[in-house]
Amino acid sequence: MGNSDDAGSKDIELWFAVLNRAIADFVLYYKHNDVKLRNLGQNAYNWLYIEDEYDRALTLGSYYFVCSVLDLNPKYIRRNVKVCKTEIRNALIKNPPKDFLTKYCDK
């Protein structure tokens, strides 16, 4: 069995991947012509930008929970994603990086 540091590291990687995927889905598919992809983008938008009492309560898997686990400022991430949306989209289309949060969402 792995040690607890390995488990914690894997948890961080998982939640980082969740946030990366949500940002990618939002910037790539929010206004897509294909209905299924547009729904994916709209769901990502809702997760990233629509707050509710459960999100604020750090419910497992909520946007605020993920930001808390990753020690990221949720308002900063939201603002940067909106401001850099076109740049992020173009970068993802041109060459999908493994993780683009380090460039656009670094604290």
Main beta sheet strand tally, sense and closure: none
* Unreliable residue stretches: none
Total of DSSP H or I helical runs spanning 4+ residues: 7
Radius of gyration: 14 Å
Number of domain units: 1
State the order of secondary-structure elements, H for helix, E for strand: HHHHHHH
Q: Given the C-alpha coordinates, what overall shape results? A: globular
Strand content: under 5%
Specify the helix fraction band.
over 70%
- Rounded average pLDDT: 83
Helix and strand composition category: mainly alpha
Count all strands and give the number.
0
Task: Explain the overall architecture.
The chain is built from 7 helices and no strands. By secondary structure, the protein is mainly alpha-helical. The protein has one domain (4-104). The mean pLDDT is 83.
